[in-house]
Structure formats: C-alpha cells, structure tokens
Amino acid sequence: QSAKPVIPADDSLYQQFGGQPGLVKLMDDFMTRLLADPRMNPFFKDVNQQHVKEQLVAQFCELSGGPCKLKGPDMKKVHAGFDIDRSAFNALVEVLQQAMDAQGIPFSAQNRMLAQLAPMHRDIINVP
Ligand code: HEM
Fold this sequence. Notes:
The chain has helices at 12-16, 19-36, 41-44, 49-63, 75-79, 86-102, 107-117, 121-124. By secondary structure, it is mainly alpha-helical.
C-alpha cells in the first residue's frame, strides 16, 4: 500500500505576519490609521469597522497561506458603493505599509503580500 503524499501547505507568509494574533493586531492598527488619515477617513468612518477588520483578517490569512477562507461578496461588489480612484487606492496601500512597518513585519513579507493585493486594483478602482 502506497503512502498518501503529504504536501505541506506553505504558511511561511502567515507565520511572518504573526499568525492569527498578528493579523488581528495589524488590522486593529490599520483601521485606527485609516480613520486618522484625512484621505481615508471619509470612506471608513461610517462603515461597520469591526466587520471590515474581521474580513481583512480572514482575507490576509487566506492570502498568506493560513487556515482561513474569506467569505463574503467579491472585491468588486464590496467596493462598488464607493468612488475609489487610483490615488485613493495608493493612499490605502501607503497606510497599510505604515501599519505593517509598525508591526515589524519584514519588508520581504510585506512585498509578498502587496504583490497579491496589487492586481485587485482592477476590481476596486471604479473611478477613472
Ligand atoms: C488591495 C486593496 C484592498 C483590499 C484587499 C480591500 C479589502 C477589503 C475587504 C476584505 C473588505 C471587507 C468586505 C466585507 O465586508 O465582506 C473591504 C471593505 C471596504 N473597503 Fe476595501 N480593500 C482594498 C482597497 C480599498 C480602497 C482603496 C478603499 C477606499 C479608498 C476601500 C474601502 C473600503 C470600504 C469603505 C469598505 C467597507 C465596505 C462596507 O462595509 O460597506 N478599500 N475592503
């Protein structure tokens, strides 16, 4: 009888983000920074911030190879109700980078994550 091949999931990026506790801390700080940023505050002040943080934890967990799956509407639907142009997208990424820096997440890990987020601009930017 042949052994089943064991293919270990690569969760190295998830580990570099500090696993679940690391992601929860990251998103708490990220949301605080989004609300403090005059460019981002108008987008986030009236939404269910706790829910958005939880969804972001699940999304980053999944993207980093952790044991999660983001459930919910796709990125296009989620953002359709907001006017998001390229500069707003870039501003959000800038705030995210500051939050990742503040958590001491290694630059290489930040870049691996940003590389997965970048293509989402096609679904999220909806204003020329
Ligand atoms: C790569 C970039 C982005 C990612 C990965 C991302 C991801 C997400 C996720 C996972 C949610 C929660 C969805 C849910 O409730 O099921 C969310 C919500 C939201 N995002 Fe983004 N987002 C990005 C960029 C942006 C940008 C650029 C803006 C505005 C400038 C923005 C504004 C919002 C707002 C306002 C909500 C709350 C929507 C609501 O509850 O009605 N996002 N985003």
